[in-house]
User: What shape does this take?
Amino acid sequence: MTERGEVVLRVMPHLTDINANGHIFGGWVLSQMDIAGGIVAHRIAQGPVATVAIESMAFITPILLGDIVSVYATEARRGRTSIAIRVDVVATRGIDQQQVELTSGVYTFVALDANHRPRPLPQD
Assistant: This one.
């Protein structure tokens, strides 16, 4: 993983979040990543955003029950109306507090106007 950026979320999955293999559902972590990316994109866009794409997703290792999951996000690139946010997920695992890289991906958000149509991003 590259530079992680800021910790946007820190959560612990629940028993109801596991699949038949005893790992946390991939959809659960995708949701957490979308929330974290959306928080950062909203701040950059200074208003509402919508997720329009998930690219370059990589599941590195399973998430286990009992992991404390930290979701990091940072701006990867910016277009006229869209923002790509790199999201990295790391677990704090076990009594020794081992840091385990779990997954990463790039989420693209588009800034929305009052009519839910794309709008230009604010100038820096």
Q: What stands out?
A: The chain has a mean pLDDT of 94. Residues 19 and 97 are 24 Å apart (CA to CA).
